[in-house]
Amino acid sequence: MSILKKALVGFVAAATVSVAFAAGHGNAPEAGTVKYTGPKMDLSKYQPEFRIGFLGDEAAQDVLTRNSCLKPYIEAAYGVPAKLFTFEDYAGNMQAMLGGNLDYTWYGSSGYAGMELEKPGFVVPVLTRMQPTGDMGYYSVMIARKDSGIKTLADTKGKRLGFADPNSTSGYLIPSIELPATPEVNGSLENYFSSTEFSGGHSGVVLAVLNGDIDVGFNWVSGVGEWSEGYTSGNLRKMVDAGQLNMDDIVQVWSSALIPNGPIAMPAKWADGSSAAEGHKVMQGMKDWIHTNDPKCSENVANGVVKSWMPVDKSFYDSIIKARKAKIEAKKSG
Known about the structure:
Layout: E1 8-11, E2 50-54, H1 60-67, H2 70-78, E3 82-87, H3 90-98, E4 105-106, H4 109-118, E5 123-130, E6 137-145, E7 160-163, H5 169-178, H6 189-192, E8 195-198, H7 202-211, E9 216-221, H8 235-241, E10 250-255, E11 259-260, E12 264-267, H9 277-293, H10 295-302, E13 308-311, H11 318-333
Parallel strand pairs: 2-3, 7-8, 7-9
Antiparallel strand pairs: 1-3, 4-12, 5-12, 5-13, 6-9, 6-10, 6-11
Helix pairs in contact: 2-9, 4-11, 9-10
C-alpha cells in the first residue's frame, strides 16, 4: 500500500456538493442554510480568500460533502470567498499550512506538534472539541475483524499491524509509544508483529482490516457512547453514519490512555503579515454559533456529537510536542 503522496488533490466549491446530514434533529434546518448572525470581520483588508484544508483520512468527495455546510458560514463571518482543499495525506496539508497556503485545518495533536517543532509559533491552536461527557480528549484503539479470533493484545503476536499516517496522533504516535511499554509487547513493535505498515489514513486502516490486508490497525474514537454506533464521534462513527462500516464486523483489541483532542488551527498571521488574532476570535465565536444554531452542520464538521468547542493554546499540547520531539530524536540516534 502507498504511504505518503504529497500532492494536493484539489478544491471544490461547496455549492456544487450535496450536503451530508447528521441524524436526530427532527425538523432542524438543512445544514448550512441558517442565516448567519455570529461574529464577523472584514478579511479582505488582509487577503482575498479564506482557505480551508482537510486531512487525508477519507475519500476527497466524502470530505467535501460532509464539510460543505461550513463554506457559507466562513464567507459570512470573514467577508471573503472560501475555498475547500483536500489532501491525500497529512504531510501535504501540513506543508501547505506552513507554506502560508491554508487558513484553517482541524489537526490531530501530533500533526500540530510536528508543525510547531518545524516552524515554532507559525501555526496557532484556536479551538478543540469537548466530548458529551465533558472530556477534552479521545482514544487510539486497535481494531481487528470479529471473525479473526483476535480478542486481546496477546492474540496479536505475529500478526500484521497497520498504522494510519506517520503524522497521525492516534494512528501512529501514541500507539508507537504506548504499545512497546505494555506487558504483552514489552519491546519493539517490529519484533512483536510480523509486519508493520502505513495504510493510508484512518478509513484506509478500517478497509485494510476488513479486506484482510492487515490483521489489526489503529483508529480514533471518543470512547464514550454506544459501540454499535461507533461511539459518539470519531472515524468509526463517521464510517458507520456513512454506511461504510457495520460495527458487528470488528472488535476493539486495545485502547490508549486519553489523548488531548486535536486543535482547529490557523496561521498566526494573515497572508499580508498582519496578526490573525482577530480572526481567531471570530473563528471561536463562529464555531459556537454553528453549534447552537445549526446542529446538523456542527455534527457533520465534528464527525459526531460534541458538547462544545473550547479555546486552547500551545500549552494544551505540550505533552504531545515533547512526545513527538522525543520520537524524532530517538530516530536520529538510532
